[in-house]
Amino acid sequence: MKTVTLIFGGVSPEHEISILSARSFYQALLSLGYEVRLIGITKTGKWVITDETTLLHQPVVPETGLPVSLSMNPNQPGLQIKGQLISLEYVIPILHGQGGEDGTIQGLFELMGVSYLGCDMESSVCCMNKIITKQLLEAAHIEVTPWVCLEREMRLDKQALQALVQSLSYPLFVKPAHGGSSIGISKVKQSEKLESAVQEALLYDREALIEQGIQGREIECSVLGDYEMINASLPGEICPEREFYDYEAKYIEKTTRLMVPAKLTGEQIQRIQQIAIAVFKTLRCYGMARVDFFLDEDTNKLFVNEVNTIPGFTSISLYPKLWEVEGLSYQQLVQKLIDLGSKKEPIQVRCNQGGSR
Questions:
Q1: To the nearest 5 percent, what fractions of the chain are helix, strand and coil?
Q2: In this model, does residue 210 exceed pLDDT 50?
């Protein structure tokens, strides 16, 4: 397999971030000798053929590209371009957020019978929904940040909101249940600001998650593997100059420091790696995931914050940088992920002929 299809862009607010990650991934694929077919998804959801110049120099996928449709025949999966069927051997979705990281496109590939890189549909759904993630981890006795949630339909007033969060202490973080790149997230230090923060989060989702802020360090750990052999990297630390690690701190300002690896004791490192692997197993992740922690400075307790199944993948993103510390170059990491995706068994639906339902 020397031809791969790289898909990027998408309808989520993380469209531009997807392109940044895809640029680095594309250049690694070329250095590994792959022939790469580029498919961009526009902000309106249109699939188009994209060229190298567009990927490397345009901030968004243009609507003017050659349209692409999909063949859903699992015996002959492919792309329909100007009435011609082009085979689809292996897909690399570098899509952050809704429509790319949430299991929808993974389910599409599984219906088509196409091999692809990364977590399957089931795991992607669970990890993308921060509420489901917390519920599953709590059931597995893995410590998460204290939280409550609410739905858009609840229409809580100020008094009801305060009652909802009475078990938590300020500051609070309010965020959409789905999504990433800190879009729609607010840090709330006083009760008067809570209602507007909830309204902001609900602009992006029908559910909002309210978490207790943890006074401590932001630690991240990269995980790589299949359902049997799983490895966790040395942890890294996020040191933002802003109030918290928001969108501007991640992608616009250059003041955020990344400590790779983080300055931790041997015992702390081992504990973080153990929990990261346990999270990967519990959520049935495959290929890659980044597990984000808070380390409480006073109690030395670790809290799992979020799990990203398609983490940022630029050359300076923390996921690949942590593996570089372990001696795995960006190109080697890309090849390892492709190999893992190639050996993943496709999900098959079997009918019990004549059996009872």
A1: 30, 25, 40
A2: yes
Phi/psi of residue 275, each to 5°?
-70, -40
**Has residue 153 got a pLDDT over 80?**
no
Of the candidate CATH numbers 3.40.50.720, 3.10.129.10, 3.30.70.1070, 3.30.1490.20, the domain formed by 146-212 belongs to 3.30.1490.20
Q: What is the pTM of this model?
A: 0.88
CATH architecture group of domain 214-343: 2-Layer Sandwich (3.30)
In the chain, what are the domain boundaries? Answer: 3-116, 146-212, 214-343
For 164, phi then psi, to 5°, come to -65, -35
Residue pair 200/186 in contact by the 8 Å Cβ criterion: yes
pLDDT at residue number 246: 44
d(CA 33, CA 41) in angstroms, rounded, equals 25
Nearest alpha-carbon partner for 99 in 181, 52, 44, 59: 44
- 155-172: pLDDT as tens digits: 677 788 888 898 999 999
Contact indicator for 39, 50 with CB cutoff of 8 Å: yes
pLDDT over threshold 80, residue 10? yes
- Residue 239 pairs in a beta bridge with 257
Which of 5, 32, 17 has the alpha carbon at shortest distance from 332?
A: 32
Contact 84, 69 (CB under 8 A): no
CA nearest 43: which of 81, 99, 91, 82?
99
